Amino acid sequence: MDYELAVIGAGPAGVAAGIYAVRAGISTIVLEEKLVGGQIVVSPWIENYPGYENISGMDLAEIFKNHLKKYIEPHELEPVKSLTKTEEGFGIVTSKGKYEVKAVVFATGAIYRTLGVPGERKFSGKGISYCATCDGFFFRDKKVAVVGGGNTAAVEALYLKNLGMDVHMIHRRDQLRAEMRYQEELEKKGVNIVYDTVVCCFNGDEKLESIELKDVNTEERRTENFDGAFVSIGLIPNTGLVRDLGVEVDDNGYIKVDDFQRTNVKGVYAAGDITGGARQIVTSCAQGAQAALASTEVLGKQYPF
Ligand code: NAP
Q1: pTM listed for this prediction
Q2: Are residues 164 and 94 in the same domain?
Q3: Would you write out the chain's pLDDT as a tens digit for each of its 305 residues?
Q4: Which of 2, 134, 196, 258 is catalytic?
Q5: Domain stops at, among 231, 248, 271
Q6: Residues 197 and 58 both lie in one domain
Q7: Is 201 assigned a catalytic role?
Q8: Pair (103, 239) in one structural domain
C-alpha cells in the first residue's frame, strides 16, 4: 500500500481533507489535475468565508495552498486517469504514476455548464469566457454580457462593472437567483439586467461580435452587439471517475453522502461541490475535514471524535 488515503481534488474540500488527514496520522496523497484552490482560483472575490471579509479568490487559493504544504506536498497537474477497486482498497492511475490506497476522498468539484447554443464553442476564447477573473481584463471599457442569474453571474457582473465595462446581465427568468445582497449591489452599480431573455446564438467573424437574444414571453428575437460574453450558468459535478466504482449519485449527478461524507461504497468518501448542497467554501472545508476523519474507520485508526 503506497498511501492510506488518496484525496482527489484540491479545492477547499480537498485541502481541508488533506490537512485533517495528515494531522490525524493518516499517510495521504493529494492529487489535483490543475492547481490547488479549485473554483476559488477563478472567483473574483470572496466575502463570506469567515475570517476574510473580502479577499480575491487567487489570494485565498494561495493561502490554502501554503497551509496544505505545511503538512503535505500536493501533486498538482497530476490528473487521475482511472480508479479501480482492488482486494485491499483502490488502485489509482494518474498521468504520472500508479498508487495503491486503502481509502479515497473525492473532492473533484464541478465544471462550468455551457449554454450549448450555436457559436458558443466557436467563440470560446474569442470573446466568450467562463471566468471573469481570468479574462475580464481583456474587455476593459467594452460592452459585455453576463449570462445567468445566480451568485456567480452576479459576482462576475459586479467584478466586470468595477473594471469599467458596460455590463448587461442576461437572465432567462423574471427573478435573479443571486443573494439579495448582490442584487442590491447590482442595482447600485448600474448593471443592466435583462430579464426573461435567452441566448439563441453567438455571432461574429473571427471573434464574437453580436448575440442573438430571445424574449421568452413574446418570442421576439433581436441581435445586439457585444464585445464579450461571460457564461455563468452553474456547474456540472465531476463524477466521471466515481461512477465506475458504483458510487450512487442523485438526479442532478451529485454524489450521495451521509452525515459523515460516506458514499454507498466502503472506503469512498466525497466532499465539496461534487456532493451538491450549499456549495460554499465554508461547507466544502467542513465536509473535507469530516470525510478525512471518517476515513479512519476503514484504516484501523482510532476514530478521533
Ligand atoms: P447557480 O446558483 O446554479 O445559478 C445558475 C444560474 O444560471 C441560474 O440563475 C440559472 O437560472 C441559470 N442557468 C442555468 N442553466 C441555464 C441555461 N441553460 N440557460 C440560461 N440560464 C441558465 O450557479 P452559480 O451561480 O454558478 O453558483 C454555484 C454555487 O456557488 C451556488 O450555490 C452559489 O450560491 C455559490 N456561489 C456563492 C457565491 C457567494 O459569494 N456567496 C459566489 C459564487 C457562487 P435559473 O435561476 O432560472 O435556474
Answers
A1: 0.77
A2: no
A3: 899 999 999 999 999 999 999 999 999 999 999 999 998 887 777 888 999 999 999 999 999 999 999 999 999 999 999 999 999 999 999 999 999 999 999 999 988 899 999 999 999 989 999 888 778 888 988 999 999 999 989 999 999 999 999 999 999 999 999 999 999 999 999 999 999 999 999 999 999 999 999 999 999 999 999 999 999 998 899 999 988 899 999 988 999 999 999 999 999 999 999 999 888 899 999 999 999 999 999 999 877 66
A4: 134
A5: 231
A6: no
A7: no
A8: yes
- Name beta bridge partners: 276: none
Mutation choice for ligand 1 from 130, 146, 147, 172, CB with most ligand atoms inside 8 A: 172
In a domain, 158, yes or no: yes
CA 63 vs CA 15, 40, 127: distances in Å: 11, 11, 31
Cell numbers 443592466: residue: 192
Name the domain boundary from 215, 231, 247.
Answer: 231
Residue 234: other Cβ atoms inside 10 A:
15
Whether residue 143 sits in one domain with residue 155: yes
**What is the spatial distance between Cα 27 and Cα 297, in angstroms, rounded to a whole number?**
14
Number of domains within the chain? 2
Pair 138, 125: CB distance under 8 Å: no
